[in-house]
Amino acid sequence: MDVFINQFLDYIKNEKELSRNTQESYLRDINQFNNYLSKYSSVDLINVNKTIVITYLVYLQKNGKSASTISRNLASLRSFYQYLLNNGVTNIDPTNNLHSPKQEKKAPNILTLKEVDKLLSIPKPNKFKGARDKAMLELLYATGLRVSEIILLDIDNINFKFSNITLEENSDIRIIPLGRTALNYLKIYINKYRNEVLKDTEEKALFINYQGKRLTRQGLWKIIKYYTDKTNINKKITPNTLRDSFAVHLLQNGADLKSVQKILGHSDISTTQKYFFAIDDKKLKEVYNNTHPRA
């Protein structure tokens, strides 16, 4: 089965030119389904029928997976089986006419400005760990970058002269402005502490661990949890919480949706629209009064 999965990954990478994050998501979902088949079914990945896919989606639901997670899994499988069908590997698409579960439109979990200040004030930039973590948290909130984007940042992505970050993914270039605070702590981390633990001068990763290697996704999550536990804020805080808070705070202060979409790197503006659910009516009216020429 691995050969078909690898061929599919090559297809979505080189022909479809999907983002690395999407590639990883597809691979994770397909492998998870394959593991499910190995454990609960006598059918292999190629000979799956619609009943098995439905049973799997019910299995995910019973195991507490959210509607959005189930929808993403179905989308991954649909893409995979469409590829197999189009290339003559299979005669049917077992996901055909299957519909994703309806998703509730929930406001994202965000922090208030005071809570952001509280979280970002905890790491002290007087040693390597504190300086790195302070710069990273400030950067997360200042840019709304995804976890995958933060850990893949290189030194060269930061432009101190023009105060921005340049990201290149496939043929697209995304330029994200940087505020003075984030730039200041990045300079402290890079100029004073990063070289202390750097073992390979060829290493370009912006954020590194104590071994001088690029920080991992798991490492970033542990850092967020470490500081979250010290805040006593009664909310679930993840790296995505800072991304969501960044977006909502921009909109609350009058930023237009198209600009926020561009900064966040959303391909579809409907993805960005969810942040309006986190703005209360009073704040929306205030934004309207401050920005509309005839308010």
TrEMBL record:
PROSITE patterns in the record, alphabetically?
CB (PS51900), TYR_RECOMBINASE (PS51898)
Q: Which CDD domains match?
A: INT_XerDC_C
Annotated GO MF terms: DNA binding
Q: Which GO terms describe its biological process?
A: DNA integration; DNA recombination
Looking up InterPro entries in the UniProt record yields:
CB, DNA_brk_join_enz, Integrase-like_cat_sf, Integrase_catalytic, Integrase_recombinase_N, Integrase_SAM-like_N, Tyrosine_recombinase_XerCD
Q: Which domain of life is it from?
A: Bacteria
Pfam families according to UniProt? Phage_int_SAM_1, Phage_integrase
What residues does the Tyr recombinase domain cover?
A: 106-289
Task: Print the keywords alphabetically.
Answer: DNA integration, DNA recombination, DNA-binding
The Core-binding (CB) domain is annotated at 1-85
PANTHER family attached to this UniProt entry: PHAGE INTEGRASE-RELATED, TYROSINE RECOMBINASE XERC
| This protein's name | Tyrosine recombinase
User: Which species does this protein come from?
Assistant: Anaerosalibacter bizertensis
